[in-house]
Amino acid sequence: MKLTLYNSLTRRKELFEPQNPARITLYNCGPTVYSHAHIGNARAAVVVDVLFRVLRHIYGGDHVVYVRNITDVDDKIIAAATEQGMPISGITEKYARIYNEDLAALNCLPPTHQPRATDHISHMIGMIGTLLDKGFAYEADGHVFFDVSTYDDYGKLSGNRLENLRSGDRIGEGEAARKRNEADFVLWKPELGGVGWDAPFGRGRPGWHIECSAMVRATLGEVIDIHCGGVDLKFPHHENEIAQSCCANNRTTFARFWVHNEFLNMDSGKMSKSLGNVIPIRDLLGDWDGEVIRLALLKAHYRSELIWTEDLLRESKAQLDGWYRVIEKAVSLGMDRDMRDARPDEKFISTIENDINTMEFLSGLECLKTRFFGEVEKKERLGEHTPGHEIFISILNPFVFMAGFLGFLRSDPQEWFKGGRDTDRFDRRVRDYDNARAQAVAAKKSGNEAKTGELFRRSDTIREELQSEGIIIETGPDGSSWRQT
Ligand SMILES: [Zn+2]
User: 258 alpha carbon to ligand 1 midpoint, in Å?
Assistant: First the structure.
């Protein structure tokens, strides 16, 4: 049980040792809820979900506190509310709910806490007040800016040198003219579209960065174990979180480990709203099972770029079909479908503890699948008694555990192969098929050849009709059933 993580702050892989093994603190920057989350956002969430599962495995489920916030005050939200003629809360409630539903469909465990920025405005005001009192921030025309020249370590995370830095923020009208240094960033800005809170430095609303700093301190503490996020957040967002938190809390450390996942790109290049190639998670969930999307997201190491293609999804679906066939076969061999005895296999766990190496973990699963079907083949070739049940169990236990560990094989194999299709209609057509076949057999027995031919043709038509929809009819001793190809 030695977890190593690549720490973006020190730029090397380090052994992870928590401050307190009874309370591991993990923070992940959550969504700004004004529209659907896209597949790039999903990658960040799934990566952290795997890390959360690994930490829970090592330290125990009750000892890991995972916080993922909801940014529910932001210029983009205000703009969306104005455009759609809706109250701010109408927009934020709707998209926060959709975000949580989407991630649940991807089998991401819910975070321990999901604080909302608007519930922590008083904490933000308090923190900004401290930064002003200590001389790390200054007021200008209803704005409060962080003065980056007061913090020596500014740029340490992103490797940017202060003299080369411009503020990474989208700059509001007139903000640039009010700043002392170009790289200074806003902590507080005046009310917009009726959205504002009273503060000693004027009625207004928080900048995005201070939201995370305040929520981290309120929910997890001043120094946390691990802070996660997409690599796109490293600068300026995370750099600014560090500056604000360290200066306000009078600490040299804010997060001990920084874990950043790489970009998800389309095969045509970067995914961006302006290029119009952003894929909402919700749209993908209309076509693919959440497990397929989850597996596709884990098919590259989190620190490598992931190229998102239709083929990647198809490959992932085929891989999962193979895993579900293992379970299906195991059940048909008389094994307990729940695999209640599934136990962790520390050999495999140690692969994922090596900087969340999902690639090696997944190939371990594939090896077990191959071994399983090798034994099945042997059994079918050699007859009933060889090999024994215990061989299957010894493969199935780690297989089921590992697949479950990564958040897979939630469905019943039968349901999986039916794939959420029009099950009632397919069931009905399969019954029609069986009826036609049974009647054909009866007609044949009574010597009515014309009738026999007609009924067999009817059953063939049903089979072909379903086949054209990607459904195969399989007939067994208890009648027929259908499955997706
Ligand atoms: Zn953040």
Answer: 12
